[in-house]
Amino acid sequence: MIVDALIPALNEEESLPGVLAGLQGRGLRRVVVVDNGSRDATADVARAGGAEVVYCARRGYGSACLRGLDHLHADAPDVVVFLDADGADDPADLPAVLGPIAAGEADLVIGSRVRGQAEAGALTPVQRFGNALSCTLVRGLFGVRFTDLGPFRAITWDALQRLDMADPDFGWTVEMQAKAARRGLRCAEVPVDYRRRYAGQSKVSGTLEGSARAGAKILWTIGRERLRGRP
Ligand SMILES: Nc1nc2c(ncn2[C@@H]2O[C@H](COP(=O)(O)OP(=O)(O)OP(=O)(O)O)[C@@H](O)[C@H]2O)c(=O)[nH]1
Ligand SMILES: [Mg+2]
Protein backbone atom coordinates (compact mmCIF):
# COMPACT_ATOMS: atom_id res chain seq x y z
CA MET A 1 0.00 0.00 0.00
CA ILE A 2 1.63 3.26 -1.14
CA VAL A 3 0.85 5.98 1.38
CA ASP A 4 1.63 9.69 0.98
CA ALA A 5 1.06 12.34 3.66
CA LEU A 6 -0.29 15.86 3.14
CA ILE A 7 0.38 18.51 5.77
CA PRO A 8 -1.22 21.95 5.36
CA ALA A 9 1.05 24.44 7.11
CA LEU A 10 0.84 28.16 7.71
CA ASN A 11 3.58 29.73 9.87
CA GLU A 12 4.50 26.49 11.67
CA GLU A 13 8.31 26.72 11.69
CA GLU A 14 8.56 25.75 15.37
CA SER A 15 6.12 22.81 15.33
CA LEU A 16 6.81 21.22 11.95
CA PRO A 17 10.27 19.71 12.68
CA GLY A 18 8.81 17.54 15.46
CA VAL A 19 5.95 16.39 13.24
CA LEU A 20 8.29 15.44 10.39
CA ALA A 21 10.71 13.67 12.73
CA GLY A 22 7.76 11.73 14.17
CA LEU A 23 6.75 10.59 10.68
CA GLN A 24 10.19 9.24 9.82
CA GLY A 25 10.43 5.48 9.41
CA ARG A 26 6.63 4.93 9.34
CA GLY A 27 6.46 3.62 5.79
CA LEU A 28 5.36 6.83 4.12
CA ARG A 29 6.47 7.20 0.50
CA ARG A 30 6.21 10.99 0.36
CA VAL A 31 5.50 13.74 2.87
CA VAL A 32 4.20 16.90 1.22
CA VAL A 33 3.93 20.17 3.15
CA VAL A 34 1.54 22.65 1.54
CA ASP A 35 2.48 26.20 2.37
CA ASN A 36 0.27 29.22 1.84
CA GLY A 37 2.97 31.87 1.86
CA SER A 38 4.07 31.49 5.47
CA ARG A 39 5.99 34.53 6.75
CA ASP A 40 8.33 32.34 8.78
CA ALA A 41 10.71 29.55 7.80
CA THR A 42 8.02 26.89 7.43
CA ALA A 43 9.20 25.92 3.92
CA ASP A 44 12.87 25.70 4.91
CA VAL A 45 12.26 23.57 8.00
CA ALA A 46 9.95 21.38 5.95
CA ARG A 47 12.68 20.67 3.40
CA ALA A 48 15.24 20.21 6.18
CA GLY A 49 12.86 17.65 7.66
CA GLY A 50 12.81 15.69 4.39
CA ALA A 51 9.44 16.89 3.13
CA GLU A 52 8.49 18.19 -0.30
CA VAL A 53 7.10 21.72 -0.24
CA VAL A 54 4.41 22.98 -2.56
CA TYR A 55 2.99 26.49 -2.52
CA CYS A 56 -0.65 27.30 -2.62
CA ALA A 57 -1.58 30.77 -3.77
CA ARG A 58 -5.02 30.77 -2.19
CA ARG A 59 -5.29 30.92 1.63
CA GLY A 60 -7.36 28.34 3.40
CA TYR A 61 -7.02 24.84 4.82
CA GLY A 62 -9.12 23.31 2.05
CA SER A 63 -7.21 25.14 -0.66
CA ALA A 64 -3.98 23.76 0.76
CA CYS A 65 -5.37 20.22 0.73
CA LEU A 66 -6.63 20.59 -2.86
CA ARG A 67 -3.24 21.94 -3.94
CA GLY A 68 -1.52 19.00 -2.26
CA LEU A 69 -3.78 16.47 -3.99
CA ASP A 70 -3.11 18.17 -7.28
CA HIS A 71 0.61 17.74 -6.62
CA LEU A 72 0.20 14.02 -5.86
CA HIS A 73 -2.02 13.39 -8.89
CA ALA A 74 0.83 12.82 -11.35
CA ASP A 75 2.03 9.77 -9.40
CA ALA A 76 -0.97 8.95 -7.22
CA PRO A 77 -0.61 6.88 -4.06
CA ASP A 78 -3.06 4.21 -2.89
CA VAL A 79 -3.82 6.17 0.26
CA VAL A 80 -3.51 9.80 1.36
CA VAL A 81 -3.02 10.71 5.02
CA PHE A 82 -3.81 14.20 6.28
CA LEU A 83 -2.43 15.63 9.53
CA ASP A 84 -1.71 19.05 10.94
CA ALA A 85 1.63 20.81 11.16
CA ASP A 86 1.27 22.20 14.68
CA GLY A 87 2.27 19.11 16.61
CA ALA A 88 -1.24 18.46 17.94
CA ASP A 89 -1.60 15.16 16.04
CA ASP A 90 0.67 12.32 17.17
CA PRO A 91 2.49 10.59 14.26
CA ALA A 92 2.65 7.45 16.42
CA ASP A 93 -1.09 7.04 15.69
CA LEU A 94 -0.40 6.62 11.95
CA PRO A 95 -0.57 2.79 11.94
CA ALA A 96 -3.91 2.92 13.76
CA VAL A 97 -5.32 5.47 11.30
CA LEU A 98 -4.22 3.32 8.34
CA GLY A 99 -5.32 0.03 9.95
CA PRO A 100 -8.91 -0.27 8.70
CA ILE A 101 -7.83 0.63 5.14
CA ALA A 102 -4.90 -1.82 5.21
CA ALA A 103 -7.35 -4.48 6.42
CA GLY A 104 -9.61 -3.75 3.44
CA GLU A 105 -12.45 -2.73 5.76
CA ALA A 106 -12.67 1.00 5.05
CA ASP A 107 -12.25 3.71 2.39
CA LEU A 108 -12.05 6.59 4.86
CA VAL A 109 -10.70 6.54 8.42
CA ILE A 110 -11.11 9.45 10.82
CA GLY A 111 -8.80 9.77 13.80
CA SER A 112 -11.22 10.65 16.58
CA ARG A 113 -9.79 12.95 19.23
CA VAL A 114 -13.05 12.49 21.16
CA ARG A 115 -12.51 8.73 21.44
CA GLY A 116 -8.78 9.18 22.10
CA GLN A 117 -6.79 10.94 24.79
CA ALA A 118 -6.91 14.72 24.38
CA GLU A 119 -4.49 16.75 26.45
CA ALA A 120 -6.14 19.33 28.75
CA GLY A 121 -6.89 22.45 26.71
CA ALA A 122 -6.16 20.76 23.37
CA LEU A 123 -9.85 20.65 22.43
CA THR A 124 -11.75 23.78 23.45
CA PRO A 125 -15.33 23.50 24.77
CA VAL A 126 -16.48 25.32 21.61
CA GLN A 127 -14.65 22.72 19.49
CA ARG A 128 -16.19 19.84 21.45
CA PHE A 129 -19.67 21.32 21.13
CA GLY A 130 -19.20 22.14 17.44
CA ASN A 131 -17.93 18.65 16.66
CA ALA A 132 -20.75 16.98 18.60
CA LEU A 133 -23.39 19.11 16.85
CA SER A 134 -21.87 18.54 13.40
CA CYS A 135 -21.53 14.79 13.91
CA THR A 136 -25.12 14.55 15.15
CA LEU A 137 -26.31 16.39 12.03
CA VAL A 138 -24.22 14.18 9.73
CA ARG A 139 -25.61 11.09 11.40
CA GLY A 140 -29.20 12.34 11.22
CA LEU A 141 -28.96 13.54 7.62
CA PHE A 142 -26.61 10.97 6.07
CA GLY A 143 -26.89 7.97 8.39
CA VAL A 144 -23.21 7.56 9.26
CA ARG A 145 -21.94 7.85 12.83
CA PHE A 146 -18.83 9.97 13.44
CA THR A 147 -17.64 11.37 16.78
CA ASP A 148 -15.18 13.98 15.45
CA LEU A 149 -14.18 16.07 12.44
CA GLY A 150 -10.53 15.38 13.29
CA PRO A 151 -7.69 16.51 10.97
CA PHE A 152 -5.72 13.26 11.28
CA ARG A 153 -7.34 10.97 8.71
CA ALA A 154 -6.67 8.61 5.83
CA ILE A 155 -8.58 7.95 2.63
CA THR A 156 -7.96 5.77 -0.41
CA TRP A 157 -7.11 7.63 -3.60
CA ASP A 158 -9.95 5.87 -5.43
CA ALA A 159 -12.50 6.95 -2.84
CA LEU A 160 -11.15 10.51 -2.95
CA GLN A 161 -11.78 10.64 -6.71
CA ARG A 162 -15.45 9.85 -6.05
CA LEU A 163 -15.95 12.81 -3.70
CA ASP A 164 -15.15 15.83 -5.90
CA MET A 165 -13.71 17.67 -2.93
CA ALA A 166 -13.92 21.43 -3.37
CA ASP A 167 -14.09 23.38 -0.12
CA PRO A 168 -11.31 26.01 0.08
CA ASP A 169 -11.21 26.51 3.85
CA PHE A 170 -12.92 25.40 7.08
CA GLY A 171 -15.55 23.16 5.44
CA TRP A 172 -13.01 20.64 4.08
CA THR A 173 -13.12 18.06 6.87
CA VAL A 174 -16.92 17.89 7.18
CA GLU A 175 -17.31 18.06 3.37
CA MET A 176 -15.26 14.86 3.09
CA GLN A 177 -17.27 13.10 5.80
CA ALA A 178 -20.70 14.25 4.55
CA LYS A 179 -19.88 13.33 0.94
CA ALA A 180 -18.38 9.99 2.00
CA ALA A 181 -21.55 9.20 3.96
CA ARG A 182 -23.85 10.35 1.16
CA ARG A 183 -21.98 8.31 -1.44
CA GLY A 184 -21.85 5.13 0.59
CA LEU A 185 -18.12 4.98 1.28
CA ARG A 186 -17.03 2.60 4.03
CA CYS A 187 -16.21 4.97 6.88
CA ALA A 188 -14.35 4.03 10.07
CA GLU A 189 -12.99 5.80 13.12
CA VAL A 190 -10.06 5.06 15.39
CA PRO A 191 -9.13 6.83 18.63
CA VAL A 192 -6.16 9.16 18.35
CA ASP A 193 -4.34 11.23 20.94
CA TYR A 194 -4.45 14.99 20.65
CA ARG A 195 -2.13 17.55 22.15
CA ARG A 196 -2.16 21.31 22.47
CA ARG A 197 -0.44 22.86 19.48
CA TYR A 198 3.33 22.83 20.09
CA ALA A 199 3.88 26.52 19.23
CA GLY A 200 2.74 29.31 16.95
CA GLN A 201 -0.58 30.99 16.29
CA SER A 202 -3.93 29.19 15.95
CA LYS A 203 -5.61 29.77 12.58
CA VAL A 204 -8.93 28.20 13.51
CA SER A 205 -10.13 26.99 16.90
CA GLY A 206 -7.79 29.00 19.09
CA THR A 207 -9.53 32.28 18.27
CA LEU A 208 -13.21 33.19 18.73
CA GLU A 209 -13.38 34.64 15.23
CA GLY A 210 -11.77 31.51 13.78
CA SER A 211 -14.15 29.24 15.68
CA ALA A 212 -17.20 31.26 14.64
CA ARG A 213 -16.20 31.32 10.97
CA ALA A 214 -15.34 27.62 11.05
CA GLY A 215 -18.60 26.77 12.82
CA ALA A 216 -20.70 28.69 10.33
CA LYS A 217 -18.91 27.18 7.35
CA ILE A 218 -19.23 23.65 8.76
CA LEU A 219 -22.99 23.97 9.30
CA TRP A 220 -23.41 25.56 5.87
CA THR A 221 -21.46 22.72 4.25
CA ILE A 222 -23.63 20.07 5.93
CA GLY A 223 -26.78 21.90 4.77
CA ARG A 224 -25.51 22.20 1.23
CA GLU A 225 -24.65 18.51 1.02
CA ARG A 226 -28.12 17.64 2.33
CA LEU A 227 -29.77 19.81 -0.30
CA ARG A 228 -27.76 17.98 -2.93
CA GLY A 229 -29.83 14.93 -2.24
CA ARG A 230 -30.26 12.06 0.15
CA PRO A 231 -27.80 9.17 0.32
N1 LIG B 1 -1.43 26.01 4.15
C1 LIG B 1 -2.33 26.43 5.03
N2 LIG B 1 -2.40 25.77 6.20
C2 LIG B 1 -3.29 26.23 7.05
C3 LIG B 1 -4.14 27.33 6.80
N3 LIG B 1 -4.89 27.52 7.87
C4 LIG B 1 -4.51 26.55 8.75
N4 LIG B 1 -3.55 25.80 8.25
C5 LIG B 1 -2.88 24.67 8.84
O1 LIG B 1 -3.92 23.76 9.15
C6 LIG B 1 -3.69 23.16 10.41
C7 LIG B 1 -4.86 23.47 11.35
O2 LIG B 1 -4.85 24.81 11.69
P1 LIG B 1 -4.79 25.25 13.23
O3 LIG B 1 -4.40 26.66 13.31
O4 LIG B 1 -3.96 24.29 13.96
O5 LIG B 1 -6.29 25.11 13.65
P2 LIG B 1 -6.84 24.36 14.95
O6 LIG B 1 -6.17 23.06 15.11
O7 LIG B 1 -8.30 24.35 14.79
O8 LIG B 1 -6.47 25.37 16.11
P3 LIG B 1 -5.44 25.10 17.30
O9 LIG B 1 -6.20 24.31 18.29
O10 LIG B 1 -5.04 26.43 17.77
O11 LIG B 1 -4.28 24.34 16.76
C8 LIG B 1 -2.32 23.67 10.89
O12 LIG B 1 -1.33 22.79 10.45
C9 LIG B 1 -2.19 25.00 10.15
O13 LIG B 1 -0.86 25.39 9.94
C10 LIG B 1 -4.04 28.01 5.55
O14 LIG B 1 -4.71 28.97 5.22
N5 LIG B 1 -3.13 27.51 4.72
MG1 LIG C 1 -4.18 22.86 15.47
What's the arrangement of secondary structure elements?
Elements (H helix, E strand, L loop, with lengths): L2 E7 L6 H8 L6 E6 L6 H7 L3 E4 L5 H13 L5 E4 L11 H9 L5 E5 L12 H18 L10 E4 H5 L10 H11 L4 E5 L16 H20 L4
Parallel strand pairs: 1-2, 1-4, 2-3, 5-7
Antiparallel strand pairs: 4-6, 5-6
Bound molecules: guanosine-5'-triphosphate and magnesium ion (MG).
Overall, the morphology is: globular
List how many beta strands DSSP finds.
7
Please state the structural category.
Answer: alpha/beta
Beta-strand portion reads: 15-25%
Determine the mean pLDDT: 95
Main beta sheet strand tally, sense and closure: 7 strands, mixed
Count of separate DSSP helical elements = 8
SSE order, one letter for each helix or strand: EHEHEHEHEHEHHEH
Low-confidence stretches: none
Bound molecules: guanosine-5'-triphosphate, magnesium ion
Q: How far apart are the first and last residues' alpha carbons, in Å?
A: 29 Å
The CATH superfamily turns out to be Spore Coat Polysaccharide Biosynthesis Protein SpsA, Chain A
* Strand arrangement, major sheet: 3-2-1-4-6-5-7
Round the Cα radius of gyration to an integer and report it: 16 Å
The CATH level-2 architecture is identified as: Alpha-Beta Complex
Short description:
Helices cover 39% and strands 15% of the residues. The protein is of the alpha/beta class.
3D structure, described in words:
The chain is α/β, with parallel strands linked by helices. It has one domain (3-228): Alpha-Beta Complex (Spore Coat Polysaccharide Biosynthesis Protein SpsA, Chain A). The protein is 39% helix and 15% strand. It contains eight helices and seven strands; from the N terminus they run βαβαβαβαβαβααβα. A seven-stranded mixed β-sheet has the order 3-2-1-4-6-5-7, sandwiched between helices. The longest helix has 20 residues, at 208-227. The chain starts with a strand and ends with a helix. Bound molecules: guanosine-5'-triphosphate and magnesium ion. Magnesium ion (MG) binds next to loops.
